Amino acid sequence: MKKHTFSILLMTVLLLSACTGRRSAAVRTEVKVPRVFVPALPPAALADNEARIEYMREHYWDNLDFTDTAFFAETDTMAMVEAYAGYVGAFLTPDDAEAITRLMDKASATKYAFDYFSMLAEKVLYDPNSPLRNDELYIPVLEAQVASPLLDKYEKLAPEYNLLLARQNRIGRKANDFRFTDTDGRRGSLYGLKAEYTLIFFNNPGCHMCKEITEALCASPMLNEMVENGRLKILALYPDEDLAEWTAYRENIPSKWLNAYDKGTTIRNGNLYDLKAIPALYLLDAEKRVLIKDSTDVGYIEYVIDHRE
Q1: CA 179 – CA 191 distance, rounded (Å)
Q2: Among 41, 67, 259, 279, which residue's beta carbon has the most beta carbons within 10 A?
């Protein structure tokens, strides 16, 4: 079990006055120490690692009084983000929606706590830069927000829209079909691509990370061999409108990939895929079921394919 330690650095600030003739004065500034959340600990009798993990899954937040609004106002936010990330990363599986649902139920004790835990979930489970970003775990947070009597109809607008996007192309379900136009002006569709695996690579010209992913895909002997023998089709898809930019960049896309754009930006306009963060990789099986959603990790793509063989 991973160990997560949470520390607070305490700084003491001394303000010394300069001597002014006959008298000097010392000015003291009190430093308010943030309140700290300490996760529960598993009983010593639980020697089995799996049992300890299951205990922490259920009891991690036992030491937190969700009705203590002063705590949320006075605690260190970054420490709480780390605590939330520690909980998700060490004790939940990637599809453990039930645990997140129960946590949001506990946070519903007050609107302050509910908003605070919604914020923590957004930073850990939804932010494109978070290594723990996961729609399957964020969906119950959004569902709780949409159903909560603590939020008014205007506060629910953003969660409703984000929930609509998060529910698209879920792991294990069939991906949304769409049409595309290739560099020769020919029209095609996602479901028209026949291969054991399809990799959709949403990209933008000039995107530094897109370039890094292209290089990583090209450097993979496994994926290149699969492209060569027809087992894998890579669809490099430009989802925006500046075709001059896309045309100028097309020489940077490997010739063995299918390079295309979304004519009329129907994918974005129809909310078929969540494109708030680009690049994004979607790995699909032969039936166009989603194996990997919205990733940037080429190594993980290799891992998933290798473990399906």
Answers
A1: 9
A2: 259
Chain centroid to CA 106: 23
Which pLDDT band holds residue 73 (cuts at 50, 70, 90)?
A: very high
Phi, psi of 179 (to 5 degrees): -105, 155
The kind and range of the H/E element at 27 are: strand 26-28
Q: What is the pTM of this model?
A: 0.81
Q: Do residues 275 and 202 make contact, with C-beta atoms less than 8 angstroms apart?
A: yes
Give the model's pLDDT for residue 198: 98
Residue 126 has pLDDT above 50, yes or no: yes
- Laid out side by side, the sheet with 290-295 consists of 187-189, 179-182, 258-261, 232-238, 197-202, 280-284, 290-295
* CATH code 2.170.270.10 for 179-306: no
Query: DSSP 3-state assignment of 124?
Result: helix
Give the pLDDT score at 293. 94
- Distances in Å between the Cα of 62 and the Cα atoms of 38, 40, 59, 65, 87 are 9, 6, 5, 8, 12
Look at residue 277 in the predicted model and tell me its pLDDT: 87
Q: Indicate the SS3 state at residue 100.
A: helix
What pLDDT is stored for residue 181 in this prediction? 97
Mean pLDDT computed over every residue of the chain: 89
- Name the DSSP class of 154: T
Exposed e or buried b per residue across 217-229, where buried means at least 16 C-beta atoms within 10 angstroms of its C-beta: beebeebbebbee
Peptide bond into 221 cis (omega under 30): no
Instruction: Looking at the chain, list the stretches that DSSP marks H as alpha helix, in order from N- to C-terminal side.
Output: 49-59, 69-74, 77-91, 97-107, 111-121, 135-147, 157-166, 208-218, 221-228, 243-249, 266-269, 298-306
